[in-house]
Amino acid sequence: MAKRIDVSGLNAYYGSFLAIEDISMTVEPRSVTAFIGPSGCGKSTFLRTLNRMHEVTPGGRVDGKVMLDEENLYGPGIDPVAVRREVGMVFQRPNPFPTMSVYDNVAAGLRLNGKYKKSELDDVVEKSLRGANLWNEVKDRLNKPGSGLSGGQQQRLCIARAIAVEPNVLLMDEPCSALDPISTLAIEDLIGELKERFTIVIVTHNMQQAARVSDRTAFFNLAAVGQPGKLIELDDTERIFSNPSVQATEDYISGRFG
Amino acid sequence: MSHATLSPKRSSLRGATLPKWFAWAVAAGSLVLGYGISAAAGLHSDIQWALIAAILFVVGSYAVSAKVEGARQAKDRTATSLVWVAFILAVIPLASLIWETVKRGVKVLDGYFLTHSMGVVADSEPGGGIYHAILGTLEQVGLATLISVPIGVLTAIYLVEYGRGKLAKAVTFFVDVMTGIPSIVAGLFILSLWVLILKMGPSGFAGSMALSILMIPVVVRSTEEMLKLVPNELREASLALGVPKWRTILKVVLPTSLGGITTGVMLAIARITGETAPVLLLVWVTNFINTNPFQDPQASLPMYIYLQYANSGGSGAAYDRAWAAALTLIAFIMILNLVARGIARWKAPKTGR
Ligand SMILES: Nc1ncnc2c1ncn2[C@@H]1O[C@H](COP(=O)(O)OP(=O)(O)O)[C@@H](O)[C@H]1O
Ligand SMILES: [Mg+2]
């Protein structure tokens, strides 16, 4: 299920503005890779190039290579819609579909992509909600609106929705930044469980969170505002937080930044 | 400055305030006074004494309040009273319109009136009804809606979800221009195209086409606004699940904005239902029931009202029928508005816990 991501020489633009420059890295399957770095250094932009969501933004453009195992996501003839089924995404703010119930939200990915039998859907919905540690909290209100849940529950609902389509990779863009500490803890525990099945990439502003949940950590930085963001280093999380090989990383982690 | 010079009231946080009923008392007082003054001066018009009362109310509450509460509160009260006066001025014509229509309309409005046509009833005789006109209006407006809603909604979807560059700008420009087209011009356009060039006769459908020209820009505008209100996050959430764009629009964007779009369509229908000019040019009128909107003249409520009134000489059976038909038209539009509100509330995205 889980696949390796191999990025080489990737640039991403907004119109003529080069947002991230020449990024190359490997993301190992069945592991959690955290992206850290100051605001505006292009973490979200880079994350969105990994499932071809970057080009949804008007003017969004990418060159370079992103290999998902053997396949280049930016190769000729690749369907971005198919890519997004392989590489799921969870956003910063919980965004359940407001017109749909809890059940329909989880089933949305499957239902919107084709026909499924009711019994099949029931199984997938239960499995995904259990996978997102939400089943016990919502099993009696599956037909209530998804937007009626608490913020933390909504975010886990979004995770359930993303894993229901069985992607290989799960991208998370600051998934806890709108949540309270208890909900954050619930999501972090969940990430620990999900990495058995998925390749996970998580953007976070919270250094402790990166240290707690990730196996490897990538530090991004930018020379100045208006300059493109770059990957400074990628290493085992332990090493990044104890003994990074670049001075800028150490400065950022120890708070001696800017 | 010693403490003694400060009045105890000024030094506390609590200033002198007039009681709640003060505004009502002033209002009642100025009404009575206004009426008295105009009676004494021999003025007969209702408008005159109401205006005097309104001025007395604004001035009176300012004066009393300035004396008791201070200048700031007095200004505050003046602003409040001006808003109330403006509100009442706006509501009076509306209320009196409805009152007059109901009062004159109920005389002959009954089941018989709604289910019979004029047939062989002469304008001067009592009896007859508006069945043919209701049927005509419903068919013409229904056809216009069938034409306008798909075109309008699809155009709005194009503009919001796909439109970039020159074509989108051009479409927006033409929609703006269309919004300003007077209904008689829309009627003349279809007249020249349909009747003069294509040599077709008058029919309900010809009227529907002209009504569509008036309805489409309204539907485009309101749908556009509603689609823009759908948060981008929802589109992204759906796209990130690997749902194609067109399905995202169909299954996520449209359902989220369905309530607002429906309301917009209902209001657009309400707007064209009372249109007279295109109907006059293209549908003509008849006293008989014509169920086929594609052939021969049809009756309609606006034309019926106009002709009954024009032939009545200001009183008599035709005059009553004109008012009853007007009441029916207003009731129809009000019901549409209420239904629109109901749908908007029912379809609004649910947030309740
Ligand atoms: N939609 C957009 N249009 C134009 N520029 C953008 C857009 N989104 C982000 N950017 C720019 O791209 C750069 C990287 O932004 P982002 O990837 O959001 O950074 P991060 O997630 O690390 O805070 C920033 O300079 C930002 O201003
Ligand atoms: Mg970001």
UniProtKB/TrEMBL annotation, chain A:
* Annotated protein name in UniProt: Phosphate ABC transporter ATP-binding protein PstB
Q: Which organism is it from?
A: Streptomyces marokkonensis
SUPFAM superfamilies linked: P-loop containing nucleoside triphosphate hydrolases
According to the entry, every stretch annotated as the ABC transporter domain falls at 5-247
- Keyword Transport included in the entry's annotation: yes
Annotated keywords: ATP-binding, Nucleotide-binding, Translocase, Transport
What Gene Ontology molecular function terms does this protein carry? ATP binding
Q: Could you tell me which Gene3D superfamilies the record lists for this protein?
A: P-loop containing nucleotide triphosphate hydrolases (3.40.50.300)
Claim: rRNA processing is one of the keywords in the record: no
CDD domains in the record? ABC_PstB_phosphate_transporter (cd03260)
Automatic annotation (TrEMBL), chain B:
State the CDD domains in the record. TM_PBP2
Q: Which UniProt keywords apply?
A: Cell membrane, Membrane, Phosphate transport, Transmembrane, Transmembrane helix, Transport
Q: Where in the cell is it found?
A: Cell membrane
This protein's source sits in the domain of life called: Bacteria
Membrane-related topology note: Multi-pass membrane protein
| Segments crossing the lipid bilayer | 21-41, 47-66, 78-99, 141-160, 172-197, 203-220, 252-272, 322-344
Tell whether Nucleotidyltransferase is among the UniProt keywords: no
Instruction: Note the Pfam families from the entry.
Output: BPD_transp_1
Positions of the ABC transmembrane type-1 domain: 134-340
Q: Which family does it belong to?
A: Belongs to the binding-protein-dependent transport system permease family. CysTW subfamily.
Q: What does this protein do?
A: Part of the binding-protein-dependent transport system for phosphate; probably responsible for the translocation of the substrate across the membrane.
In Swiss-Prot or TrEMBL terms, this protein is called: Phosphate transport system permease protein PstA
Q: Which organism is it from?
A: Streptomyces marokkonensis
The gene for this chain is pstA
